[in-house]
Amino acid sequence: MALQALLLSNDPDVLKTIRRALDTVNIDLQVCHNAEEAGHILKRRKYDSVLVDCDVRNAPAVLRDLRKGKSNKSCIAFALINQATTIQQAFEMGANFVLDKPLAMDRTIRSVRAAQGLIMRERRRYHRYLVNATGTIIVDAGTELPVGITNISEGGISIECVRCLDEGGAARLRFLLPGSKKPLEIKGEIAWAGADGRAGIRFQVLPVAAKEELEEWMGKRGLLSNGAMFINATAHA
Hints:
The chain has 237 residues and is an alpha/beta fold.
């Protein structure tokens, strides 16, 4: 699935440069011309990147609101600035990248390519792979419970437990990945929990050895390729 970007701007030169830059990395672009329209769209759709021309009326508020919302809180944000907005102000509003207007094509392409790398790294973090494995979870200051593992990613794991877990609680996991010889021990947080015992655990403390083994295990199965579909393993199904 192609990456998606939203541009807020009514400057034809900005649109031309941004479109050409995004085309070099195969990112699809949607354009809106006013802050109200952009704010409405961003509440309903998720984008990999949002580019905000700060010269548009109320555009800085759109940039700030990105980090307060849910759908696009972690997207890669660009601030396109002129003299009215400083670089420091743009970063304080939540921008990951700042580009001065008029936009230079070579710098814009370099920034877009760097952004694409960050987007793909974040997507790889949440790639979910279905597994059929067992392990244990330690909660409630020492209570050890058997669990079944239904899927795993670099950022978390989904499990089925014999009892309902407490959302937001801490947990320690011990499990053996299919084909592995050494079990992984990882500390996490219960991101969501269902009444049927299903739960999503978000990894918090991932030892270097465990991280390397998990990445190697996923890499051998082709799970880190750019063409894969990525799903947050800790999201409630």
